[in-house]
Amino acid sequence: MQCIFAVLLRVAWWSSTTKLLVLVNPYDTGYYGVYDPPTNGRFPMPDDDSGIMMSVNRFMLPGTYNALYCSPNLELSQMIARIVDGLTQVAEPKNSLFGIKKRKFESCYESIRARNKAKQKNDALKMSEIIRETSCTEKVIASLASTNKLSIHGTYSSFAPARSTASMFIEADKPIPMSKLVTRGHFFPRPGNYRWRALAWYLGHLRVFVKCADKDVWFLLDDIGDEWNSGRPIYQYLSTVNEEVGKDTILVKKSKILRRPWGDAVPSISKIDSTAAHSRDGPHYYKRKILTGRLPASKPWGTFGSRVDCAELDPPVELSHKNDRLGRKRFKKLYKNKETH
After folding, report:
1. What's the burial of 239, exposed, middle or buried (CB within 10 Å: 0-12/13-18/19+)?
2. How far apart are CA 262 and CA 131, in angstroms?
3. Rounded distance, CA 281 to CA 70, Å?
4. In angstroms, what CA-CA distances link 8 with 21, 91, 164, 176, 230?
5. First to last CA, the chain
């Protein structure tokens, strides 16, 4: 059985332009693809002869929703091709989807460029001063860094790409609250007592964050710039959350989905004869636990950090090679500074 999770961001129900569709799976390197969703703003519905069954959702309010697609026979590449047939793949999501208007983006960049020209050669542009004295915000600066307009350095620079060819340098001189970088409603910690891991929309992409066990510091599981290989941890997060808070439902073919103005529906499990699950032409539905409403969101708390900020991790987290290497390098630098004082 091959399965793929799809995640749909609905910023405003009345707008067909403020939506984003992400597909992820746990196989091989973990597929991650971003697409413009169908014009009706809902999840794609493969035809009955596609060999794919899917869960359905109730779209009551703007938010982030997930759906599961499964097939007993198709290869992963075949499933993806049939799910996204007719959709346009997105190279980089628009900033406007995440509360950053083009005017603010350009104004901040010009302010930083002017300060960079006016500064003394060896002076560093401090991020805290830029935020205090200009119209720039932490989120806009992070977005500028992610598009290679700025290069962020310093102790608290983990919110930005580690490698940059930008000619303007900014020193991240103070910790940055998560709430300044991740929009409320775009942060999804695991429910209950397992809030040490969260899914979030950050810099236009879905990302998995991990929290230190000993303090409210969050860091990215994968490096900024490596989001196209992040399908596996996102899929694992969604699988866990759906199993924990989802409801028993069924995955069905397109012809079995009941169309409703407020969202699609499927026949009740109790009304389906279990013997009808399979017939000569193959399976007709699967039972799964699925969250059919919005992903449960929370206001972000704590600060943005890195692995080295944690004295403890609960449970241990497997980091990418690049993330771990940079963490060790920073730890050695901090330890060396302590030795010299």
Report:
1. middle
2. 42
3. 16
4. 5, 16, 30, 28, 17
5. 59
Q: CB of 67 within 8 A of CB of 56?
A: yes
User: Are 145 and 156 in contact, with CB atoms under 8 Å apart?
Assistant: no
- Report the C-alpha gap between 121 and 103 in whole angstroms: 29
Tell me how far the alpha carbon of residue 171 is from its chain's centroid: 26
For 40, half-sphere exposure in the C-beta direction (CA atoms, 13 angstrom radius) is: 11
pLDDT of residue 338: 35
Q: Are the C-beta atoms of 58 and 294 separated by less than 8 Å?
A: no
pTM value? Answer: 0.83
Output the average pLDDT for the chain: 81
At 339 the pLDDT is 39
> Strands, DSSP E only, in the chain?
2-10, 19-24, 32-35, 53-54, 63-71, 125-126, 151-153, 169-171, 176-177, 187-189, 197-202, 205-211, 217-220, 247-252, 278-279, 282-283, 285-290, 303-304
Residues 75 and 98: their CA atoms lie apart, in Å, by 34
Check residue 262 and give its pLDDT. Answer: 57
Closest by CA position to 2, among listed 80, 57, 67, 65: 80
77 close to 282: Cβ distance less than 8 angstroms: no
Distance between CA atoms of 149 and 169, rounded to whole angstroms?
Answer: 9
The residue-averaged pLDDT of 303-314 equals 83
Distance of CA 205 to CAs 24, 80, 182, 284, Å? 12, 19, 11, 34
Burial 288-325 (b: 16+ CB within 10 A, else e): bbbbbbbbebeebebbbbbbbbbeebeeebebeeebee
